[in-house]
Amino acid sequence: MTKRLNAFVASANSSETQFPLNNLPYGVFLQGDLKRCGVAIGDFVLDVAALEKQGLIDLGQPLLQSAAWNPVMDAGSDIWGQLRARLITLLSDGSADQNAVEAALYPLTDVQLLMPFTVSEFTDFYAGKHHATNVGTMFRGAENALPPNWLHIPIGYNGRASSVVVSGTDIHRPSGQLKGPDDALPRFAPSKRFDIELEMGAIVGRPSSDRVSVDQADDMIFGYVILNDWSARDIQAWEYQPLGPFQSKATATTISPWIVTKAALEPFRCETPTRDFELLAHLKDTGPMLYGIDLGVTIAPKGSDATEVIRTNYKEMYYSAAQQLAHHTSSGCPMRVGDLLGSGTISGATKDSRGSFLELSWGGKEPFTLDSGETRSFIEDYDTLTLQGFAKGSDFKIGFGDCTGTILPAK
Ligand code: MN
After folding, report:
1. Do 158 and 264 sit in the same domain of this protein?
2. Distance from the CA of 292 to the center of ligand 1, in angstroms?
3. Segment 357-383, tens digit of pLDDT
4. If you write DSSP's letter for every residue of 285-296 in order, what string do you get?
């Protein structure tokens, strides 16, 4: 396992920080009234826009003077590698430019983090086998749990880029059309079964105009975020047939403020699981394309401490982001820089590794208890939900920052 790299920033050398020199995740922060591209290091954010202006970072053209990382993505993977190498040099223990770099560091506690990139389009998949089996069992019975296509294609739907928000954004409980199994007619009311979905988001950094292979798709991915696909289960249950989710998933999707690059995650690659059926050629595994990332979810009712209710790992997925992206292009669908692909809910085999409250409370039949003594089946008003993820090395860990949101009453 890769060892921790030493930075001249002391807080980046702690085994507790999620932003060691090995990470260098990309975000956007508010400095005064300016939106700036920044890189997290220890307890600080590095103002890379300022360093580029001073000539300490030179990518051949100005790419960091934007309020989003899309221009860097668009510049291509050679630039991605150049930038990462330069940042490691600038921040390493013994850096020749330590004074200038120090002057561009701001404490993370002093800055507001904004959307790290402009989302071009958003697609959400349904690629966790335990999740699909759990949900299918609840909705259709154990014999019909997995739809017949599930083991052959990564199922997804086209979501809304406009609904993607950064961590810390409050979310109003949605209202929608609801109809329970015993109701004669539907009614319009606030959702009573508002839920999270614990996911990873893959960010497409290179465009495509035609079908791409799984290896080409992997090369197109710029990095990953933690993603919460907020879901109104009662709206979903009424609307989903025959075209899939629509308003139940359109309220908001929250992402972590930091994009962890594919380069930073490289040491944590792992294999996809054994296949029930051999995949067709355009989806075949060509190498380890999942990542070992420990994931957790906490819930904090208003005025109470947080309780961790979910622990799972990204390696539980059946399809990798590269396979999902390759499949996404299989019809000739063009992909754009800034496309966001939700992995699908990440559940493991055990009860405490179920990645949604729908599964955790088994459709509301088995409420779970929080440290405060309260019980939950779904989210209550003023609950704060926080998703976290860590790839763990021998003496360091790589994180994405909190992916958090508080639910406010319906409007
Ligand atoms: Mn989802």
Report:
1. yes
2. 20
3. 999 999 999 999 999 999 999 999 999
4. --S--EE--EEE
